[in-house]
Amino acid sequence: MGAARTDAHAPPGRLRSWLGQDARHDIPASLVVFLVAVPLSLGIAAASGAPVMAGLIAAVVGGIVAGALGGSALQVSGPAAGLTVVVAELITQFGWAVTCSITVIAGALQLLLGACRIGRAALAISPTVVHAMLAGIGVTIVLGQLHVLLGGAAGTSAWENISELPGQLLDLHSPAAFIGLGVIVLLVAWPRLPARVRAVPGPLVAIVAATAVSSLAALTLNRVELPDSPFAAIALPQLPNGQWGAFALGVFTLTVIASVESLLSAVSVDKLREGHRSNLDRELIGQGSANVASGLLGGLPVTGVIVRSSTNVRAGARTRASAVLHGIWVLLFTVLLVGLVEQVPMAALAGLLVFIGTQLVRPDDIRSARSHGELHVYLITVAGVVMLNLLEGVLIGLAVAMFGMLRRVVWARVRVEDGDGPDEEGRETRSVVVEGTLSFLSVPRLSRVLAQVPDGSAVTVELVVDYLDHAAYGHLATWKTTHVAGGGTVVVDEIGGPGPNARRKRPGVVGTRTFLAWSQWQAGEPEIPAQTRRDPLVVGAREYHRRGASVIRPQLRKLASSQAPHALFLTCADSRIVPNVITASGPGDLFTIRNVGNLVPRPNESDDQSVQAAVEYAVGNLGVQTIVVCGHSRCGAMTATLADQAGDGAVAQWLRWAETSVREWRAGHPLGRAAEEDGWSEVDQLAMVNVAVQLDTLRSMPEVRDADVRLVGMFFDIPTGTVLSLEDDRFTPMPGDRAALPPQRTAAKAADGVADGVAGGEPAVDAAKAATNGSPVTT
């Protein structure tokens, strides 16, 4: 995907390949992008104060040059709204010819940056600042173009546009206002129309409709002005007579913003098309080449444009030929149909730009900034861009973001919370919560908070920290000793993940509770209160409400009225198997069935229809597309079945559904032979064969047989925590975890003695307990 399949010097074989495979996708996509690009290019040029033809020149150069040389095969380049404010300021300060020279030099710097291979350095910029920069540009465009839409002229500053807007509204120029507002209404309504109608780009329809109405009604409006010949717009760039500092600042600003916008757009395109990967260094080279060419020809600066790029992807483009062809179509339009462009009302372009400007202020970006605690960065950056200028606003935003990052790195949040009442010995209870980075800089605050803890109280210190330096550790240890000596108790609960402080953790105390049982992180901690040891689930529920509920509630609110799980997950009732953990899934992802031995009774042969009912509901009502059967190592159910000593009760009645698995295994099932070759114990071999047998049973169910459902076999090895998948009659570790299993399954071979004991007449209950490390026979 990353390489062009056709260019001017493409070998005949590659050209024939493109014509046979991709042309039928690329050519229609290029036409769609062309129809989007023309009105946008005209509008952006008008908003920048540049010659209108400069927008079309940039569209042609961006499509052909950047499309052919860039590192993102599906990205479409051209004039972008994100540079409108910058270009407008440069034209006001230097004039158009000098602005063209700034574009040329900025392009040369982009070529240098690409050659130095620093393309990915642009990704280090805070996304919040980038989103706020675009939002500030959008607000600035809206404030300026509202005046044009109403029949007036845009001011030179945001404050001027704001202060003069009420007067503009009172002295309304009706024809222009109605044309501009009509364009906005049509663009807002366009996404809600039927798909067949939306196949035609909304901006094109809006501009054509506004032009047709204004012409048929013979309205007196300001319209686009073009030179008699398109080639007359080509102007050589000039250097300034002075102001070299401001000139250099303009080059720097244009280089940085054009590069960042292009690279972020390329990364966004990668997310839109699976398997597509951009070469960011080559993309800089392509963008630099396009800016050099555009500046020399009198065009606007060029960047990668996410609006056109996403349109290109959605239209089905396969190769970079689509972007190149779109530039060729714009060139033909510019040469052959220039007379049509001169009929377009400026108010229509203003309405288009007002709509584009509002689209740059995205509610999702604001919500994201708020959820990450960076809303103040977003708002300050927007205010700086609107009220000052683009460069100063971005620099202020970066400074605020950097200060916030440093504060989070060197500062800890410390607070005292009341406990749940007196403990069993009547002592007051308190919780001291420490979050962030606990360094020597936070010791004064830590000392002040610890001084608020009553003497003789039962205290839990919760360290939700990623770093704990020697000074903070020493202060906390000294305070703990003093508090305990005064009759109190202190439990230090380290919740932070593995890191540089792992060596300080007490033996047996696990640093994170996300995946591990309470019984495990409590191990080896003698100071855990007796109530916690006696009733851990109640205390665990309290812990959930304190720490987990607030995180999970947004997702649960989305699922409150319905569920749409990705898969039905059938596994054993063994307490050591946690489906959501081993599949990294959460609420709403899995429709789970658990029973002893992960068994599926054969349809119409059992009075117990619970499994079949769950499958029918999941496939028929929930639309589940994947069914997973997951077995596990050292399964007590398989051990008891293999020993044929499960007794006469309900367990024995249930385990009869595993008898087919035993017969298949003893008959030399391919999966059992492969497991034996890999060194698995006999119990584990049977458990693996059992997964395949239960998949066959599921396959025979009408609910599954008649639906397009994918059946997946999985196996969880408990000692190593490894998940294996069933591929070609063999269970193999998931990619990225192959080192988790030793070559000959040393741990599994140690369990062979269990099976040997069963064969020699060892009682089934004891054999099952041995195989499951003490778990009951039923699991």
Mean pLDDT: 82
Number of strands: 12
Low-confidence stretches: 1-9, 497-528, 746-779
Percent strand equals: 5-15%
Using the alpha-carbon principal axes, give the shape: globular
Largest sheet: 6 strands, mixed
Helix content: 55-70%
Instruction: Please list the strands of the largest sheet in the order they lie side by side.
Output: 8-7-9-10-11-12
From the alpha carbons, calculate the radius of gyration and give it in angstroms. 34 Å
Cα distance, first to last residue? 50 Å
Number of helices: 35
Content-based structural category: alpha/beta
User: Total domains, how many?
Assistant: 3
List keywords for this structure.
779 residues, alpha/beta, Beta-carbonic Anhydrase, Chain A, 3 domains, four-stranded mixed β-sheet, 35 helices, globular, disordered N terminus
Report on the architecture of this protein.
Catalyzes the reversible hydration of carbon dioxide to form bicarbonate. Residues 24-374 form the SLC26A/SulP transporter domain. It is found in: Membrane. The chain crosses the membrane at residues 27-47, 54-74, 94-116, 128-152, 172-190, 202-224, 244-267, 288-307, 327-356, 377-406. GO terms for molecular function: carbonate dehydratase activity; zinc ion binding. This protein is an alpha/beta fold. It has three domains: 23-127 and 170-346, no CATH class; 411-546, Transcription Regulator spoIIAA (2-Layer Sandwich); 564-771, 3-Layer(aba) Sandwich (Beta-carbonic Anhydrase, Chain A). 56% of the residues lie in helices and 9% in strands. It is built from 35 helices and twelve strands. The strands form three sheets. The protein has a six-stranded mixed sheet. Helix 21 links the parallel strand 5 and strand 6 (489-494). Helix 17 crosses helix 18 (375-387). The radius of gyration is 34 Å and the shape is globular.
